[in-house]
């Protein structure tokens, strides 16, 4: 055991403790569970448009701030036709990536919280026993994400 380790704890300790938060502390996806069910499971277009517009208008995020995440969702969408299992695995891994980006954005004084919460609620609705249904749900997720990005301003307006 090195001088930096405590008994029962291995590895570097610098990133643990008060700064380390669970998923729930970073985003609250439960607020959007009902909307996610309507949009992802039932495919309700009006609910998709309404929520996307509301999020873009009230979030304070910019198109630039979510572009990289949207790009990953599009790449996964293209991969669905080639390797469904791999694509759906990457889709599920978008959740931790969103949590990370949200925490990072908070440190940079940007606000992705509302959008990330909604997207995570949508991702949680993707899982299904039938891979074809899961694929359809992911495509609805991409449609929702695209609508959010479309409504977001390119950059923040000076107030």
UniProtKB/TrEMBL annotation:
Residues in coiled coil: none
Pfam families in alphabetical order: Csm2_III-A
Source taxon at top rank: Bacteria
Keywords, sorted A to Z: Antiviral defense, RNA-binding
Location of region: Disordered: 1-21
Role noted for this protein: This subunit may be involved in monitoring complementarity of crRNA and target RNA.
Family label: Belongs to the CRISPR-associated Csm2 family.
Full protein name: CRISPR system Cms protein Csm2
The organism of origin for this protein: Tepidiforma bonchosmolovskayae
Upper lineage: Bacteria, Bacillati, Chloroflexota, Tepidiformia, Tepidiformales
């Amino acid at each position: 055991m090195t001088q930096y380790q405590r008994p029962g704890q291995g590895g570097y300790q610098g990133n643990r403790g008060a700064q380390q938060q669970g998923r729930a502390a970073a985003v609250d996806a439960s607020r959007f569970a009902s909307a996610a069910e309507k949009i992802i499971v039932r495919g309700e277009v009006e609910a998709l448009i309404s929520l996307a517009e509301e999020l873009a208008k009230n979030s304070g995020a910019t198109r630039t701030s979510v572009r990289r995440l949207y790009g990953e969702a599009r790449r996964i969408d293209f991969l669905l036709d080639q390797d469904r299992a791999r694509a759906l695995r990457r889709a599920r891994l978008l959740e931790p990536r969103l949590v990370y980006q949200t925490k990072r954005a908070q440190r940079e004084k940007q606000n992705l919280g509302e959008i990330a919460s909604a997207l995570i609620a949508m991702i949680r609705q993707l899982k299904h026993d039938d891979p074809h249904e899961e694929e359809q749900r992911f495509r609805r997720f991409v449609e929702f994400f695209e609508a959010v990005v479309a409504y977001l301003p390119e950059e923040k307006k000076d107030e």
